[in-house]
Amino acid sequence: MLSNATREVKDYLARVLEDARVRKLMSFLEEDHSRLVDEQCEMALLEAPPLFERRRAEEMARKFAGLGLTNVCVDDALNATAKLQGSLGFGEVLAEAHLDTVFPFETVKKITRGNDRIEAPGISDNCRGLAAILGIVRGIQHAGIVLKKDVTFAGTSGEEGIGDLKGMRNLFMRDPARFDFCLSIDGHGTGHFVFDGTGSRRYSVVFETQGGHSWTDFGVSSAVHAMGRAIANITQIAVPDDPRTSYNVGTVSGGTSVNAIAQKAEMLVDLRSVSNEELDRLEAKFMGAVTAACSEEKARSSRKTDVRVCFRKVGDRPAGKQKENSPAKPLAMASSELLGIKYEDDGPSSTNANIPVYFGVPSLCMGAGGEGGGIHTVEEWFSPADGWRAVQQAALILIATAGLS
Ligand SMILES: [Zn+2]
Question: Which CATH number, 3.20.20.300, 3.30.70.360, 1.20.1630.10, 3.40.50.880, labels domain 199-317?
Fold first, then answer.
C-alpha cells in the first residue's frame, strides 16, 4: 500500500519519465554500463585512504571539467566538487559519493577482472558510487537535460573510519541550509536505501599508573587491571532497543612485560545510537563506568596508588532522523515501483547522509547497482550485472529533486 505522499510522488515521477530527454537519459545509462564499469576500475587504482584522497579527488575534478561542469575545484577538505547550473537561479541539490577507502596506501596491487566478477579493494565501496556520479553527469549532458535547481556533484573525503565525515562537514558546516536535498551514492546494490543516520562517538581511553615489578611491587595499581575493570563496568551498561543504541570496546593494548605491573593501557571504544539524546546518556554512563573502575583499582591496591585516565574523542558523527515531511522515502519507494525495482529500507546506518539529515536536509543514501561482497576487506569484489538499473534510479531521483526545466 502506497501512502498518499508516495502516490503523488509516483505520479510526478511518471510525468518526469515521460519527458523525451529523460527517456534518452535512461537508455543512455543502460548503454553506458560498460564504460561506467571501466571508470570504476580506473578509480580503484587511485588509492585514497581517509585524509589522503588527493589523487582521486583530482581525477574526479578532471573528469567533472571534461564533462562540462563549472566551478570545478578540490576544496581544503579534499572534496572534488563541480556545479551543473540550474535555470532558476536559486535552490541547490547535492549528489555525492565518498572518495575514500578503508585501506592504507599500497593495498591495491591490481584489479582482477573476470567475466562477471571484479576483485579489488574499494571496487564496490566506493568506486562504484564515484563511477555512478560520473555516469549520471555524462547522461544528463548527453540527453541535453536542463534542471531548475543547481546541482553540486561531489566526490567527498573522509567518510570511512577516522575521516569522521570530514568532507560532508566541510560542505554543510558553513551553510547548513545551502542544499535542499542530498543524494548519497555508496557501494553496490539495487533498491537498497538508508534514510536515518546512526550517530557514533569514539574514544581512545588511556590508563596510566606508576607500575612496577610484578613480584616486588605487588599491591600497586595496574593500568591493565584498571582497564579490565572498566571493560567489565562498561558491559554492565543497559541500553534501549528503541531507539537502538550500542557500545563496543573494539581494541585493547598495553603493558610492557608479563612480569611488569602495567604502567599504561589503552582501549578504543565505539558508542552508537540513532538518537543523539541516548548517545549523550550513553557517553555519560561510559565515562562514569571508566572513572569508577579507576577508583576501584586504587581502592583494591594495598598501596593505594593512583590510576590516571585520559579520554580522547577520536570520532563524532551525529545521529539524525528524516523529518515527517521529508520526500526521501516517498521518492525511493515510488521510483522503485516505477522502475520495477525491489525496494528495501536498510534501516538506520552511519553514512555520509548523517550530516544532511542531522541538519534537517532531506537525504537518502543508496547503492549504485550490481552485487558485491567482502566490503572493507582486501577480498572485496563487485559483480556488475544489471548495475545500470540503480544508476537510472539515482538519476531519476536527482532529476525529480532538482526539477526538469
Ligand atoms: Zn562506503
Answer: 3.30.70.360
